[in-house]
Amino acid sequence: MSNFPIKEFEAAATPFYFYDMELLRRTLDAVKDSAHDDNFHVHYAIKANANPLVIKKISEAGLGVDCVSEGEIRAALKAGFPASKIVFAGVGKGDSEIDYALDNDIECFNVESIPELQLIQEMAAVKCKVANIAIRVNPDIDAHTHHYITTGLEENKFGVALDMLRSAVDYCLKSPNLRLVGLHFHIGSQITVMEPFKLLCERINGLIDTYKKLGVEFQSINVGGGLGIDYEDPDGQPIPDFKSYFEVFRNNLRLDSTQQVHFELGRSIVGQCGSLITKVRYVKEGLKKKFVIVDAGMTDLIRPALYQAHHVIQNITSTDIATETYDVVGPICESSDCFGVEETLPVTKRGDLIAIRSAGAYGEIMASQYNCRNLPGCVTN
Ligand SMILES: Cc1ncc(COP(=O)(O)O)c(C=O)c1O
Question: Is the C-beta atom of 265 inside 6 A of ligand 1?
Fold first, then answer.
C-alpha cells in the first residue's frame, strides 16, 4: 500500500484528491528518458487533470501541452507552458476560442473538419496571421477499449474520415492563412496493449507514402495519446511502460530525418499519482450485503459510474487484520454512485479513511456539483 501521510489526511476536510508529487516527478523522468529522440515531442493532454499544482510540475519538466478549450489554454499559459508548445484540438472549437488561440500564437490547431478550416482561415486572414494546421484523421482503428473512450473508429465524431482527407489537405494548401504542418491522430484511451499503436503506425506510413506521391510532405505527425495504466495494481506498476510505448513509434513509423513526432499523453502521466481520499460515514447492514457509505460520490470521481471503471479501494486507517466484504458506495441519489461491489476490506467503521487509487486522471477535473455538493479539495506531499 502506498505511503500516505495519514496525519495530514486526518486534519484535512474530506473528500479530497491526494497527489503524490514525488511519483509524478518520477513518471515525468521516465517519459523524458524513454522519449529521448530529438524528433519526439511529448505534450501533456491537460484534459486529464488541470490541477494548478500538477500542471505547474509538468510544465517545469519541459513538456508541451494539448488543450481542447480556451479555458485549458488559459490554465496552461498560467502554469507556465509556452504558447509555442500549445496544440489546440477539439471537434467543436468556438469562434472566441479560435480568436484567443490565434492572438496567443499557439503552436498548432488540430483541425477536425473542413468547416473548421474555413473558419480558421477567415479569422486568421482578419488578423493577418498564418495558423499552423494539423488535420486530425480518423484512422478507423479499433483500440479495443471501452466504447466511450474509443475515438478512432469510422463512426466516431472525431477527425476527418480517410476518404475526405484529400479535400481537407487541398483546402489547406490553397488557403493563404493556413500552413499545413501535418496530420493528427488519436485512437482512444486506456490502451494497454501495443498492437493498436502498431496498426496506427502502419496507417500513418501508408498516408505519408500516398501524399508524398502527390507532392505533399507532412513535417509533423501527432499520434495522440491513449497509453493506459494498471488500475488493478497501482503499487506494482506505478509508472506505465513508456519504453515499450515509444519504442513502437521509433520502430514502426517510417519517417525521414526532418519529420517530427508529437505525442499527447494524459492518463499515463497523471493517473497513478492521484488518489481520492474519503471518509466512511456509515457502515450499513443490508439484507444480503454490507455497505460502506463514504463521503465521496460520483460527483468527485465519475469514472466508475460513467465507464464502469474499477479503482482499487483501500482502507488506509484500519489496523484490523480481519476482513469483510462490502459494497463501497457514495451518498449521491443515483444507483450508479457505487465505487466497488464486493470489495474485501479490513473490518471498516465510521470515520475510517478510504483511498480510491489511480484517480489522478479524469478524476478531479470531471468533478461536478450535482446535488449541490462542494467540489473535492486537494492535498499534496
Ligand atoms: C485528441 C486527444 N489527445 C490526447 C488525449 C489524451 O488521452 P490519454 O489520456 O488516454 O493519454 C485525448 C483523450 O481523450 C484526446 O482526445
Answer: yes
